[in-house]
Design a protein that fits this description.
The radius of gyration is 35 Å and the shape is elongated. The strands form five sheets. A seven-stranded antiparallel beta sheet has the order 20-19-17-18-16-15-21. The longest helix is centred in the middle third of the chain and has 49 residues. 32% of the residues are buried. By secondary structure, it is of the alpha+beta class.
Length: 580
């Protein structure tokens, strides 16, 4: 997930194809660190987002508008004064840096043609948007950086703009075989790290991709490479740089299921286990990726409190269960005490007064055993003492057997809720999970709160053979799918012995092909606690054989006759229709 120099190079190519010679018709500043320029060009009107956010710096073209404050900030007013209706004459990236320079022509108050520069630096927490004269004297910036903040460079009105060379990296587009060997292969570090610390604009992801293409372990040291491997790596590096020079980009997003995990302007072959989606433009990639990423980030943030509740109760329940099992194990000696009492009754008549033990034949095992005695008690009293111990442990055993069963069911229930939180993709999903936690007393409903209307629906997939497959996102949906939606001859799938979704395949009375069984199994594996494993064992059977015990928690079922298959939790090629 790197906004690196190659992504910038792709953006510069796209901007030159789209807005060069366009006029800036509107300038807005929707956020303190973000500009929105409306530009009219030969291809119509577009909007350019320029964000210097420390957490999410961005540049991309969009058709979407954003609301602006009633009173424009000073930096926005300054730009309107100077470059409103200005013409963008040049857009370029200096030396593969994460910087885009916009040269803008405009007429001043006297009618003279002038040139200004808008410089966007996409550098993480050091990102900035800087407005300069043509001689690089700073007019203003969206963030002021004084000497107290940075000892490297001041970004203040009146100062001269320059790019700080703090890391002394080289321009990868100018690399030769000789310079590559000299710079990259002279460092006592890993191959991947040597590449991205040597060249500007090369992120760790791109360095890793180069190593992957060259069939080299990026984590191995330079010293471990053979001459042939070194040459092979340089060739892949050279071919990638040639693509960048020629403007041959491959904007794409890598997804794990529906969740976006990375993007790039070159093809990322290293993510062979995930889904790669190619896009027409890098702007579309950035807008799509961060919009989707924000959804997942927001859902995770909103689920933090629920996860904390579930994890706290789970930890407490597991400790309670371990203690109960230990206590239950202690009751195993109850039968021994019962035998002791019986044997004292049988053989105790011959004991001398004050005897401390009794050696007798255990007629259950035909072995001679020694029974400890209390010398202060009669044989009958010793026997009763052991019977009392037996009865106490028997009562404890019966009580603990019920308690451990309840605690185990609670743990399974909470683990299923935890898995539901992992699956949740919307606020409606979280609402339904929260409602379950309220119903079972894990959290309290606010005094003014009402039961919220739930809009969350199961996932709806379609198999390669055209059969509809439904996946519950939580216990309530699992219950609904299995016992209200599915009919007797539909097939039901679930990960064996671990929390997971109920998966139902609608058969329409037909016999399912093997491929549909496999795809349903993969969905059951993916939407389970075992999704990080290479393989997951899946139970499957016709829905009519799935039963729900009386009084059991939602989503809990039993079955006694089933088939099994082993599935990979890979659902990349199974078509998701939506939520049904």
């Amino acid at each position: 997930m790197a906004f690196d120099g190659i992504v910038i190079a792709n953006l510069v190519k796209e901007l030159n194809e789209t807005i060069i010679n366009g006029r800036i018709s509107k300038i807005a500043q929707p956020e303190n660190d973000e500009l929105l320029l409306t530009i009219k060009g030969n291809k119509g009107q577009v909007r350019l987002v320029l964000s210097a956010s420390a957490s999410l710096p961005l540049i991309y073209l969009t058709q979407n508008n954003k609301p602006s404050p009633m009173t424009a900030p000073n930096f926005c007013m300054l730009l309107r004064k100077h470059i409103a209706n200005g013409k963008i004459t040049r857009i370029y990236q200096p030396q593969m840096e994460r910087i885009i320079n916009f040269e803008i022509e405009h007429f001043n108050e006297l009618g003279d043609l002038c040139e200004k520069r808008l410089i966007v630096e996409v550098m993480g927490k050091h990102s900035n948007i800087i407005f300069c004269k043509e001689d690089n004297i700073i007019i203003d910036s969206i963030k002021h950086i004084s000497a107290q903040i940075s000892s490297v460079r001041e970004v203040l009105p009146g100062r001269t703009y320059f790019i700080p060379e703090t890391q002394e990296k080289e321009n990868p587009l100018e690399a030769t075989q000789e310079s590559f060997f000299e710079s990259v292969y002279s460092k006592p570090i890993s191959t991947m790290k040597s590449i991205y610390t040597t060249y500007k604009g090369i992120s760790p992801v791109i360095a890793s991709e180069l190593c992957f293409r060259a069939s080299i372990d990026g984590d191995c040291s330079i010293a471990a490479l053979s001459e042939e491997e070194k040459l092979h790596l340089f060739h892949h590096f050279s071919w990638m740089m040639e693509d960048i020079k020629e403007g041959r980009f491959f904007p794409n997003i890598i997804k794990n299921g529906k969740e976006p995990i990375d993007f790039a302007a070159v093809q990322l072959n290293q993510y062979s286990d995930y889904t790669l989606t190619k896009y027409a433009s890098i702007s579309e990639v950035l807008e799509t990726f961060y919009a989707a990423k924000n959804i997942y980030t927001r859902i995770r943030q909103k689920s933090v409190d629920l996860r904390k509740v579930v994890n706290t109760i789970l930890e407490r329940s597991r400790k309670k269960y371990d203690l109960q099992l230990k206590q239950l194990k202690d009751t195993e000696k109850r039968e021994k005490y019962k035998v002791y009492g019986e044997l004292i009754h049988t053989y105790g008549y011959g004991l001398e007064e004050g005897a401390k033990k009794l050696e007798a034949l255990n007629y259950y095992t035909n072995e001679i055993i020694t029974i400890p005695l209390d010398a202060q008690l009669t044989p009958q009293e010793n026997a009763q003492k052991y019977f009392d111990k037996y009865n106490k442990l028997k009562r404890t055993y019966e009580a603990l057997s019920e308690l451990t069963k309840e605690t185990q069911e609670e743990i399974l229930h909470l683990e299923s809720i935890s898995t539901s939180l992992d699956i949740a993709v919307s606020e409606d999903d979280l609402t339904q999970i929260k409602e379950e936690l309220i119903q079972f007393g894990y959290i309290k409903r606010k005094s003014t709160g009402k039961k919220q209307k739930v809009k969350s629906k199961p996932f709806h997939y379609i198999s390669s053979d055209g059969y509809h497959i439904y996946v519950g996102k939580n216990n309530y949906q699992n219950e609904e799918l299995t016992f209200k939606f599915a009919v007797g001859n539909d097939w039901w799938f679930h990960a064996k012995g671990i929390p997971g979704s109920h998966v139902v395949v609608k058969t329409n009375g037909e016999e399912l092909p093997d491929r549909t069984f496999e795809e349903a199994g993969r969905l059951a594996a993916y939407y389970s606690k075992g999704r990080e494993n290479d393989k997951v064992e899946i139970d499957y059977l016709e829905k009519k054989h799935v039963k729900k015990p009386n009084g059991s928690k939602p989503g809990f079922v039993v079955y006694y006759t089933n088939y099994s298959l082993v599935a990979s939790p890979d659902i990349t090629k199974i078509q998701l229709i939506g939520e049904s």
